[in-house]
# Entry
Amino acid sequence: MGGRSASSSPPWSLNHGKGSGELFIERTKAECSALKRTVEKALEQVNDQEFFKKPGVESHSIAALVKHVGGTLRSRFTNFLTEEGEKPDRDRENEFNIFEGETRAVLMEKWEDGGGRFFATLDGLKGEDLTRDVQVRWRKQPALEGGSSSRCTPPSTAAR
# Structure
């Protein structure tokens, strides 16, 4: 009949000696890296006029979403395990407003800064860290939950 024997493991279950926490972190990095690349490829196809255009009164421009995603990731993943995820210097509501001097390059720097902090946090996490408590928006929760409320959500939101 070919194929695997009943006793062999399916390929997705091979952990290469890693615990489930480490595998989760590794797969999160891979998934979010792919989403980030997808968003960045889409952004490359948009000119500056389209980047800053609000499609409707109740809508946000791509620029505002890029700024918000960068702000969310910067706030949430700066000192992820030791500080409140909503930093006191964050002005969340103004992330949706574009001010004079906020060029595309400036906003992309905010995107990169937030993404860099997110990936640096993942690089520094150990599997057991996922069960530690973190505080996000003044609510204590396991790091796995606190991180996953942001985990790939901003890039996937921006991809829409």
Summary: DSSP finds six helices and two strands in the chain.
